[in-house]
Automatic annotation (TrEMBL):
It comes from Arcticibacter tournemirensis. Keywords: ATP-binding, Ligase, Nucleotide-binding. PANTHER family: AMP-BINDING DOMAIN-CONTAINING PROTEIN-RELATED (PTHR43272:SF33), LONG-CHAIN-FATTY-ACID--COA LIGASE (PTHR43272). Residues 31-460 form the AMP-dependent synthetase/ligase domain. GO terms for molecular function: ATP binding; long-chain fatty acid-CoA ligase activity. This is Long-chain fatty acid--CoA ligase. The keyword Protease does not apply.
Length: 637
């Protein structure tokens, strides 16, 4: 298959697979049903998509109409998306964790005509707001026995179950087959494929308009950069398809190459599903890798003794072996033998818990702490980092498979330009491309800007916001601060996150927070200090570590008091904070902190669905407690 010319729109992807890569009977999707993994072929997927397309045409859906999704990852998501893409409609996926108010805003802003609903819980959400959404014509529960949730309720929109929709679509398909083909052929690369609403840390959501061209070119460029992805891969999908990262890097990549997609049952069952499915590729977020790292280290070293010594020895051998190979040298006989022993005693056992077949993990959504990336490298588990935003389809850069620089997000993908611009003056320091890559190149720090095939068409219904984001020269301003290091892009922080202390010193929270997150005692940390004399923080302790150290019952974490005042617990955390502070400049170090009983969460409105802290929300919500932090320190001083 020629990735450069094989397809130009999303509905062409799977048809390219069955025409050029796999027989249509080959398995495409897998999901757990009644305790067993069920396999679904490319033919079944396309047949279901055609039936749904027939139904959508029957009810008057036309090119450019927006159709909604609020559903967990599942085969139904794929069928419905394939169906609407091939008739030129637009996917509007909504995070299941959003509030009813936010869902209502998106449905009305996008003018959504139908919505596919995944669970009874989500259906109840939609029922509450449906009559406030005048464009909404059909609600489609993806589960049976939904009728009981509608008893006594008047809805302006019609309701049809997914099974009934499929049956009706199949019945009328002969009438619509030629029309579906004509619609598919009429889809242009410049047409909208999706509206993805940004989860922004401030302000109301904005719908990024992503075209078929955006998605297809992003997939082609990413596969050129990571050519090790073959048609035999098995991807385990657990990040939400409502997020652009999972949609492009799993769904669209697999649709382009003919890989299998297995849908994880839940985050809680992810480890079990990995052992069952034995994936070769998986997309993840840094926090998952941090937890795997913390759990592996804790399990191996907590009891001390011979087990801890063997583990630490193995990690050290893995590090030495990795560093020799990364330097382009050939490991000697002695270190090679030691590495094989370390692999047999330690590394292979950890890899078995991932299924034992992983070629690599692709981490995105936030910066991966350098020490965590190196840890996996020491285990001989490849972790590639990617960087991008919803507005960039999303991938702008990815780590090359055979050239890793830990702490960076890789090389610029083909056929786009990435610049570094001075935040104050607007001067562009450098513009780099895939072709200009130089492994020794380094640049000053500034805002990361990008132009090329990955940049969105603009924000839906928001021309002013579009003009602010994309300048007259076509540069999209990411709002991220970064630089080039050894030819690779390195993210420093978000411009909006930068803390400027009362002495004028800039503090970038993310790298400072990542330094403190090296502590196995700390689950989350939120830095404070803008326009203040010094840095303070809200620290969320690791629940497992806290329970192990102090023998705390579950009731401790259900206490309504937001913060933990216990002096022993504070001192226990302070020990690690003092130790890790030596890795930072004096003005970056935490001078005082408070201990939050439970993690920051999406449900509490403190984090975005992509797990970024909402700085303004948190600072406002805990303003009284934050002020006390500074008063305490001044009183002690």
């Amino acid at each position: 298959m020629n990735l450069k010319t094989g397809f130009s729109t999303v509905p062409e992807l799977l048809r390219n697979v069955v025409n050029n890569i796999h027989p249509e009977t080959e398995t495409f999707l897998m999901h757990k049903e009644d305790g067993r993994w069920k396999e679904i072929s490319f033919k079944q997927t396309l047949d279901n998509a055609d039936a749904i397309s027939g139904y959508l045409l029957e009810i008057g859906i036309k090119k450019g109409d927006r159709l909604g999704f609020i559903i967990e990852n599942s085969p139904e998501y794929i069928y419905y998306d394939q169906a609407l893409q091939q008739i030129g409609a637009v996917n509007v996926s909504i995070y299941p964790t959003l509030s009813e108010h936010e869902i209502e805003y998106i449905l009305n802003d996008a003018g959504v005509r139908t919505i596919l609903v995944g669970t009874p819980f989500l259906l109840r959400k939609i029922i509450k707001i449906a009559n406030n959404c005048p464009s909404l014509e059909r609600i489609i529960p993806a589960f049976d026995n939904y009728e009981k949730y509608l008893e006594g309720i008047h809805l302006n929109a019609g309701v049809i179950g997914f099974s009934a929709l499929l049956a009706q679509g199949r019945k009328n398909l002969p009438v619509h087959e030629k029309q579906i083909l004509a619609c598919r052929e009429a889809v242009l690369p410049s047409d909208l494929s999706a509206l993805i609403y940004t989860s922004g840390t401030t302000g109301i959501p904005k719908g990024a308009m992503l075209t078929h061209h955006n998605f297809i070119e992003n997939v082609k460029a990413s596969l050129e950069q990571i050519p090790v992805v073959t048609s035999k891969e098995v991807f385990l999908s657990f990040l939400p398809l409502s997020h652009v990262f999972e949609r492009t890097a799993t769904y669209h990549v697999c649709s382009a190459k003919g890989c299998r997609i297995a849908f994880s049952q839940s985050l809680e069952l992810l480890a079990k599903n990995m052992e069952e499915i034995k994936p070769t590729f998986m997309n993840c977020v840094p926090r998952l890798l941090e937890r795997i790292h913390d759990k592996a280290v804790k399990s191996a070293t907590q009891a001390g003794g011979a087990k801890a010594k063997v583990f630490n020895w193995a990690i050290d051998i893995g590090r030495k072996y990795r560093e020799i190979k990364e330097a382009g040298k050939r490991p000697g006989l002695a270190i090679s033998i030691q590495q094989k022993i370390a692999d047999k005693l330690v590394f292979s056992k950890i890899r078995e818990k991932t299924g034992g077949r992983l070629k690599c993990l692709l981490s995105g959504g936030a910066a991966l702490p350098k020490n965590v990336g190196e840890f996996f490298g020491n285990l001989n588990i490849k972790v590639l980092e990617g960087f991008g935003l919803t507005e960039t389809s999303p991938i702008m850069s990815i780590t090359e498979f055979d050239r890793q620089v830990y702490g960076t997000v890789g090389r610029i993908i083909p056929r786009i330009e990435v610049g570094i611009q001075d935040v104050e003056t607007g001067k562009i320091y450098t513009v780099q491309t895939h072709e200009s890559f130089d492994p020794s190149f380094e640049s000053p720090e500034g805002e990361i800007i990008v132009r090329g095939h990955c940049v969105m068409k603009g924000y839906w219904n928001k021309p002013e916001d579009t003009a602010l984001a994309i300048d007259p020269e076509g540069w999209f301003h990411t709002g991220d601060v970064g630089l080039f290091y050894k030819g690779n892009l390195k993210i420093t922080d978000r411009i909006k996150n930068i803390l400027v202390n009362s002495y004028g010193k800039n503090v970038y929270p993310t790298p400072v927070e990542n330094t403190y997150l090296k502590s196995q005692k700390i689950e989350q940390i939120f830095l404070i200090g803008d326009k203040r004399e010094y840095i303070t923080a809200i620290v969320v302790p690791s629940k497992d570590s806290l329970q192990h150290e102090f023998g705390l019952p579950e009731e401790f974490f259900q206490n309504p008091e937001m913060f933990i005042e216990d002096k022993e617990i504070r001192e226990w955390i302070a020990q690690d904070i003092r130790k890790l502070s030596h890795e930072l400049a004096k003005f970056e170090r935490i001078k005082n902190f408070m201990v939050k009983r439970n993690p920051f969460s999406i449900e509490a409105g403190e984090m975005t669905p992509s797990l970024k802290a909402k700085r303004k929300v948190i600072e406002k919500k805990y303003a009284h407690d934050i002020n006390k932090l500074y008063q305490e320190e001044e009183a002690e001083g």
